[in-house]
Amino acid sequence: MVTSPSHPDSSSTHTIAQTNPSYSPQSGSAIIFRSGEETLIRPVSRVLSSLHRSDLLILSSQTPPLPSLPLSPYPARPDTPVRAHFVTDQEPIDSGWSHGYMPGTYDALSHLLFTPPPTAGSSGGPIVDEESGAVIGVMLGTRVDNRVEGLRGSGVPSEVIFEMFSLPGISK
């Protein structure tokens, strides 16, 4: 686990500098990703855009090209079968993408609900339409609306991602 260099006294976590002595921080954040069998750490050079209520962030970093997923510009239908990749601190019994579905939402343009609920640490992961393979949302966490429906996953629809970019002809 990695923590911010500004909190080095945290007993259960380590700073990036502690886990990789050759790392020279250029900013307060880093991107950690796997390239084949190698784990790479790259400093974040800039925050290009963010939406704080949606937990979305676009970062700039010197990384090799990474594969991307298609992004759906349309709201998902209720009962859409979805897949999501949950983070776990133990090796999962069935690794890979978890199957689930979207039972529907109150407002398809502001939030989406899905099952099963994500594990802790999965926030920011994609919610993918099983049929098309396109990202239809981003996981935020879990919530309980009532006792009948119980605990469900909560996320933002993919349309919100488009709010992070300037459209041609529109100045901020």
Would you give an account of this structure?
The protein has two domains: 2-61, no CATH class; 80-161, Trypsin-like serine proteases (Thrombin, subunit H, Beta Barrel). The chain has two helices and eleven strands; from the N terminus they run ββαβββββββββα. The chain has helices at residues 16-19, 159-162, and strands spanning 2-3, 14-15, 30-35, 38-51, 56-61, 80-84, 98-102, 112-114, 126-129, 135-144, 151-157. The strands form three sheets. It has a six-stranded antiparallel β-sheet. A three-stranded antiparallel β-sheet has the order 3-4-5, with no helix packed on it. β10 and β11 (151-157) form a beta hairpin. The longest helix is centred in the first third of the chain and has 4 residues, at 16-19. The radius of gyration is 18 Å and the shape is globular. It starts with a strand and ends in a 10-residue tail after the last helix.
